[in-house]
Amino acid sequence: MLGWQVTNPGADVRRAVSRVEMATPRPGAGELLVAVDACGVCRTDLHVASGELPVHRRSVVPGHEVVGHVAEVGADVTGWRAGDRVGVAWLRETDGTCHFCTRGNENLCPASRYTGWDADGGYAEFTTVRADFAYALPSGYTDAELAPLLCAGIIGFRALRLSDLPPGGRLGIYGFGGSAHLTAQVAIAQGAEVHVLTRSPRAQQLALDLGAASARDAGEGPPVPLDSAIIFAPVGTLVPTALRALDRGGTLAIAGIYLTDIPSLRYEEELFQERTVRSVTANTRQDGRDLLDFAEHHRLEVAVTPYAWENADAALIDLAEGRVRGAAVLGTFDPAEGP
């Protein structure tokens, strides 16, 4: 099969990844072999390719927003059969026995492993997934629309939960890409007033089109004090900016696996009055199920920039340089649909 591998991680993303012929994987016991129909291009893939995340598997196939169908069912698998539509996400497996797993925080499991980092992911014709970590997918969406839900959607959903947004509260969103544009819609559907802070005029317009109450540059700040905020951009200098925008008792959630250094915080201006900062680490499978169930019952508008499989390197470069509207997705598209 053909697939993309991270063969030379570094700042030059085009040199970091290579399209190669490789062996088709086989499903082990408890696993599914998935024929990949579409795969989202997540900023975490960019961190893996650029070396900002340490190498966990040499020549790994990136990609963890996988939509496909079951090509083969491994031994001891129940509940899945060949031809079923299936989703594969970032969290690949946990030990299921540590105190984090048993208390419902499997995302913090020290033995956790991740698709497209510890094991080959979806930038290829086939991938594998443990059947108990695979997702059934909601109806009414195309493959390209579903792909971003499997990480961008799920991690944004968890970040929204951890932001402790009160009912009808004011939420600030910093950065407005693949994850943020989905999270904004969930928050608005739940009754929140959403204010988007991003430097991109195109992203500002998308935010307003999706129902945001305001869209401004982060330096300008929101027009009202915020009850909660989420930072999606991997920019540590936004942390004090977002904290200053919070009202008393507000919570800031940082929804990224990678963040540049955070400047020194001034206690009285940025943390006093019971303001809280929380990191967001991966997600649990229940987060994924809940987000996909929400998407089944609340139609989400998924902004997709499509790329052909052979242009995965271009998709990563465009993501790095801020040229992607919404979420980039690899798949088989009509040339008129995208790059």
UniProtKB/TrEMBL annotation:
The keyword Glycoprotein does not apply. Its EC number is 1.1.1.1. Residues 10-330 form the Enoyl reductase (ER) domain. The keyword Metal-binding applies. InterPro entries: ADH-like_C, ADH-like_N, ADH_Zn_CS, ADH_Zn_typ-2, ER, GroES-like_sf, NAD(P)-bd_dom_sf. Its cofactor is Zn(2+). It holds the Pfam family ADH_N. It catalyses: a secondary alcohol + NAD(+) = a ketone + NADH + H(+); a primary alcohol + NAD(+) = an aldehyde + NADH + H(+). Gene3D superfamilies: Medium-chain alcohol dehydrogenases, catalytic domain, NAD(P)-binding Rossmann-like Domain. Belongs to the zinc-containing alcohol dehydrogenase family. PANTHER family: ALCOHOL DEHYDROGENASE 1-RELATED (PTHR42940), VACUOLAR PROTEIN SORTING-ASSOCIATED PROTEIN 11 (PTHR42940:SF8). NCBIfam families: adh_fam_2 (TIGR02822). This is alcohol dehydrogenase. It comes from Paractinoplanes pyxinae.
